[in-house]
Amino acid sequence: MTTQDPAAHPDPRAEALLRQAQDFADRVVAPRAIDWDRADQFDIATLREAAVLGWFGLQLPEERGGLGLPFSVKSRLTEILAGADFGFALSLVNTMNIGHKLVRDAPHLADRYLPDLLTGARLASTALTEPGAGTDFGAITTTARRDGDGWVLNGGKAWIINAAASDVILAYAQTDPGSRGAGIAAFLVDGQREGFDRREAFALTGQHSIGVGGFELHGYRAAADEMVQPPGQAFKYALNDINGARTYVAAMCCGMVDAALKIAGAYGRRRETFGRKLVDHQGWRWSLADADIDLAAARALVRHAEARIDAGQEARHEAARAKVFATRMAERHIPVLGQLMGAEGLSASYPFGRHTMGAKISGLVDGSSEILRDGLALRHAREPDA
């Protein structure tokens, strides 16, 4: 019913990869996601199956063992995978991100860690959030203190994707307490070293496939060359990189709604009530139409943000608009599309419950919807001619 196919791409290599992703989502992820949700499971083995397909190196140059494809392909990959399971897609992309950042910002560390990241032998995380600091990134209290030629890190991180098992971590720490963003630096933290203490994975109401958790650093020693981004630069890079994250989270919302729309439509074509198929009832069909319209609008916002990021252009407002709209769209339509199937929509064999939780998560990660709305409004208040 929808007007756009996320697998359609002008690059034939990209289109082939996205077709492959749809097959993997349908054949591997969707059937297993039912058990992940039931058993509160973070499935590392399936992530490693995805690694065999080369996805962890999607954005990396070919000379680094990657596929050399642009951001837009990564975003569409997550859209397809989220149609099967949001948590799996978000977990996978977080390991992808660290390999890309190491090649970009610390090639010497990429030499050390990239082989294991590309094969899925080790998983990765980006660690900004703390128990007392979320969207207010400048308020983090994890410290990095100079000690000889290196650094000593102390503090705790919480609500970190993949932290249930990841041990290649880009962790942000304050080198000059009280300086907020100006003193924040990014370090490569190796979870196999002394001074790293992993917390038990967090118990959620669903979507344990995200692998969310936390860790403590107690006198963790980082070498001088393990500072990936210096004070000041780290804060700016994180704010820029988060535009990509907001864009692919918006794409994931599109993937979940697209899957829900297809499932509800197929059910309506085979289910009879009062002597007619459900799709023959006009009022029933209107909910499909509403979802289709909003999905097309959300995808247009996502594609616009993807194109700007591919071109190396500023995408702060474009990414924020896409994420806010797509999150609202998913929160609105996924429960309604499940309702179209009556009690059948409650069955764990369908993803409506998991996708509803995925939509709620999307409204929190990488900047809450409320914060993003406020930022968009302030743009107009402060720049009336923009």
Explain this structure.
This protein has 386 residues and is an alpha+beta fold. The protein has 3 domains: 12-123, Butyryl-Coa Dehydrogenase, subunit A, domain 1; 126-229, Butyryl-CoA Dehydrogenase, subunit A, domain 2 (Beta Barrel); 235-382, Butyryl-CoA Dehydrogenase, subunit A, domain 3 (Up-down Bundle). It is 51% helix and 14% strand. It has 10 helices and 10 strands. It has helices at residues 12-39, 44-52, 71-82, 86-105, 107-119, 233-270, 282-310, 316-339, 352-362, 369-382; strands at 124-127, 143-147, 150-160, 168-174, 184-190, 196-198, 213-222, 227-229, 272-273, 276-277. The strands form 3 sheets. Strands 1-4-5-8 form a 4-stranded mixed beta sheet. A hairpin with a 2-residue loop joins strand 2 (143-147) and strand 3 (150-160). Helix 1 packs parallel to helix 3 and helix 6 (233-270) runs parallel beside helix 8 (316-339). The longest helix is centred in the middle third of the chain and has 38 residues, at 233-270. The radius of gyration is 21 Å and the shape is globular. The model has no long low-confidence stretch (mean pLDDT 93).
Short description:
By secondary structure, this protein is of the alpha+beta class. It has helices spanning 12-39, 44-52, 71-82, 86-105, 107-119, 233-270, 282-310, 316-339, 352-362, 369-382; strands spanning 124-127, 143-147, 150-160, 168-174, 184-190, 196-198, 213-222, 227-229, 272-273, 276-277.
